[in-house]
Fold this sequence. Notes:
about 20% strand; glucose metabolism; NAD(P)-bd_dom_sf
Amino acid sequence: xxxxxIPVDPFDLxxxxxxxxxxxxxxxxxxxxxxxxxxxxQESRVIGAARSxxxxxxxxxxxxxxxxxxVNGAKNNTEALDRFIAHLSYVPIDATGEExxxxxxxxxxxxxxxAFYFSVAPSLFGALAERLHNYxxxxxxxxxxxxxxxxxxxxxxxxxxxxxARHFDESQxxxxxHYLGKETVQNLMAVRFANILFEPLWNAQYVDxxxxxxxxxxxxxxxxxxxxxxxxxxxxxxxxxxxxLCLIAMEPPYHFDPDxxxxxxxxxxxxxxxxxxxxxxxxxxxxxxxMASYLQDIxxxxxxxxxxxxxxxxxxxxxxxxxxxxxxTGKRLRARTSEIAVVFKEPPHSLFDEAEGWRANTLVIRLQxxxxxxxxxxxxxxxxxxxxxxxxxxxxxxxxxLGEEGTDMPDAxxxxxxxxxxxxxTLFMRGDEVEAAWAWADPVLAAVEGRGxxxxxxxxxxxGPEEALMLMHRDGRRWREMRTG
Length: 485
Ligand code: NAD
């Protein structure tokens, strides 16, 4: 019962940074899986372009190894892998130099979709955009794909938008937030807008609060430099968690159309209240259980960067006035889990004496692990023990509803890359959305900077600092348990 694969139009996809980590872990494995499913047309070509002085053969070995490492079962079908690899070629190019560009221009074929994936540091976006234009490689129908981080603050995000806008129209720019490519995130829109059940209750009158948790068990090892400059607020909240909040809070768009959806998300961001110091808790992991502290991991004893943040956000519009949205994210936490929980209010009157067993109806959207949606409802505990209530999950997990195939869901990157080729921007962030999210985040970051305080410490394997629990307790609420699955 998994939907039919509709092949996209033939394409030339140039992956700048094609020898990098993202290309290895995500882009080539994703393309291979789309190829295996027959979605990537035979006439399509993928051209790696990077500063590495690799030969074409070495590049193909690199991409082949990437697929073998990151696609389950790829080693059992080397014939298909060889056919896929035959679509790949390589051009050594320095984004800031002039060599290689004419050769790249010669490889781009007319009459197919042209997409250019900027899988390089954002500081190179301008140089790439300019050369794609100067060498006549990109035309008005070409698409460019850019990765996070999209800016460090509002002014750098604006500068990046301006650099891209010099040579590309907004309709050609695909800013990736891979959270939007997750099956469950899209399913959230289906649940909200393809059913009559939820939308009448989807407001401050019936929703007590919303919790969004993105918890990781890993520390920052390997990305220390980047992370210490960013922290949890920039790395997770301003982009991924903001997008999730928007999808929960937005008004129904008039159509499932890229700009209609993004217009509604933008309105949510603009309606967010400023975050006060009482609305935020920052944390940093200490050492414990044989694991190093954050300060040891980054070898900077005085860093004040947060590896955990909890926020209480308020949306000032008719639908949500009075319903807080609590966000928390962090590293080295108890479990690797991402979920959104929409916690409904109590029924207005209780018929049953059993107040103790009562728990609020909650719609839980799990992004990982075990993507799926659950509605927690109260029922009578089965058996002759009287009218005792118990909460059970109504499970809308895909595995059950869709059979075995439902569990083999495509990676977000597979969907997003195919959407680029299709020319569908719905799941990509528009420039004004990114700027609005920074305009909200900037004062929060500036206030932290101004106060100069240190984050609260928390133990590895915990749920974050005590103060984050208090953020909820003060409101008479509590965080959901942080557990895997
Ligand atoms: P990386 O350092 O592993 O690879 C960088 C790539 O860029 C290499 O192929 C390198 O040859 C190429 N490159 C560097 N300078 C160049 C130049 N002057 N001209 C041409 N090519 C040049 O980086 P990465 O982890 O693959 O990340 C790429 C982009 O994706 C970055 O913007 C990063 O923030 C973003 N990103 C990465 C991940 C990830 O999991 N790796 C996740 C999200 C976003």
